[in-house]
Amino acid sequence: MTATRKALTGTAFATLLLIAFMMGANHVAARFAFNNGVDVVTAVSARSSVTALVVGFVLWQQKVSLTTTLRQKKFLLTIGGLIAVQSVCLYSSVARLPVALALLAFNTYPLTTAFWARVLYGHKAERAVILAMPLMLIGLSLALDVFGAASGLGAAAHWSQIGVGIAFALAASATFGLAMVLMEHEAGGLDGRLRTFSTMGLVALFSITAAMSQGGFHLPTAQPGWWGLALLSLLYGTAFTIMFMVLPKLGVVGNSAIMNVEPVFALVLAWALLGQSIAPMQLLGALVVVSTVMWLGLRKR
Question: Can you give the residue ranges of the EamA domain (predicted)?
């Protein structure tokens, strides 16, 4: 099905940028939480629980039908599990890397989505995706400073520092791509609000269960950690609420790729609030990745 893309109004464009800003800020807030005693599972539990409650209220307020088939229920459970893994992996990457680099590595998900669509459903990747692959990989290699030139450490020492974080980000990309393919093919007929409520509710359930099995939640040890935990939950839940309540009315679904400027906002916020910075060559790589992802999302189909 081809999405109808309408011309963006100033309000619509500003709303898309606001969502991208809140998503980027959510990850910066998460880093404050991680730096002050919060573990990844606690952060995922808080964020997912708040979002599920907010979207659940929207479902109730708008009287959305909750009817699903048995097959849809099975795949919703699978999708919830995948997003739980993706959430833990991405926050684990954010805890180890400069926030912007973690998000850039995760932003390879258009490629992993195309891979899973090919493997599971035999869909050939579009020509645009094939053309984008080398551009994204080149940009990512520059952003991550794969040879350790910008850091001055050399490849081996540099990767000993970033390797685990990058692995978590790429695992998040792979699981997110798989979840998106399953959502499109197995749960595409369901209302987006219902899919989101189911997914976030299951992520909350899985993460809370994991926290309890590991001795309970790891709460902040200092005030910045409490602010970080509160803000990551508030920002994520608010962004999702705007996506499902405001964007459909603005008619900008086909332009949602603009929200992929999230790593740029994260880069600026992390520099200003966390003192994180990257070299000019890494910044160039970041712009290549973000531009390529936006081009993929905004291209005519």
Answer: 15-143, 165-296
Question: Which DSSP helix (H) or strand (E) runs through 248?
Answer: helix 247-250
205, part of any domain:
yes
Q: Which of these, 196, 268, 255, lies nearest to 15 by C-alpha position?
A: 255
CA pair distance 96, 94, nearest whole angstrom: 5
Please check whether residue 16 is in contact with residue 252, taking contact to mean a CB–CB distance below 8 angstroms. Answer: yes
Q: CB neighbours of 272 closer than 8 A, spacing ≥ 6?
A: none
Query: In this predicted model, what pLDDT tens digit does every residue of 140-165 receive, in sequence order?
Result: 888 888 888 877 778 888 899 999 99
The C-alpha torsion from 165 through 146 and 110 to 116, rounded to 10°, is: -70
- The rounded distance, in Å, linking the Cα atoms of 98 and 118 is 32
Is residue 5 included in any domain, yes or no?
no
Is residue 29 a contact partner of residue 233, using CB atoms and an 8 Å limit? no
End-to-end Cα separation, the chain, in angstroms: 10
User: What is the model's pTM?
Assistant: 0.88
Domain assignment of residue 135, given as a range: 10-298
Q: Is residue 217 part of a domain?
A: yes
